[in-house]
Design a protein that fits this description.
Blueprint lengths: L2 E5 L3 E2 L8 E5 L9 E7 L6 E7 L4 E3 L7 E6 L4 E6 L8 E8 L13 E4 L3 E5 L2
Parallel strand pairs: 2-11
Antiparallel strand pairs: 1-3, 3-8, 4-5, 4-9, 5-6, 7-8, 9-10, 9-11
Length: 127
């Protein structure tokens, strides 16, 4: 059974870059045909799909975040990471990683699209 675990700094200062990492166990991030997504949920708001990296290394981003988002992977460690630049307090959220279909936006939250999630890591952006 695949398991995902997020890790990253709990506190980030404004204008810095947030870089959480997702470590995957019980399955390979190169296994066809999965995509590995980053999702966040700000306090009191809904889930927001941010972007994903595919089993083949292809990347896909939310249009609203594309200019300051990058997702990369380290296949030797079976990890993938998010880089979100130019942080503001509005980026404070619980950040999740997940495995599932190639999807984007709200369709990722349709039944069965994302079949495994990490527990989430809380990030506060504050000076």
């Amino acid at each position: 059974q695949v398991q995902l675990q997020e890790s990253g700094p709990g506190l980030v200062k404004p204008s810095q870059t947030l870089s959480p990492t997702c470590t995957v166990s019980g399955g390979s991030i190169t296994t066809s045909y999965y995509a590995w997504s980053w999702i966040r949920q700000p306090p009191g708001k809904g889930l927001e799909w941010m972007g994903a990296i595919g089993y083949d290394g292809s990347t896909h981003y939310s249009p609203s975040l594309k200019s300051r988002t990058s997702i990369s992977r380290d296949t030797s460690k079976n990890q993938f990471s998010l880089q979100l630049s130019s942080e503001t307090p509005e980026d404070s959220a619980v950040y999740y990683c997940a495995r599932g279909d190639f999807c984007s936006g709200s369709e990722c939250f349709a039944s069965g699209a994302l079949d495994a999630w990490g527990q989430g890591t809380i990030v506060n952006v504050s000076s």
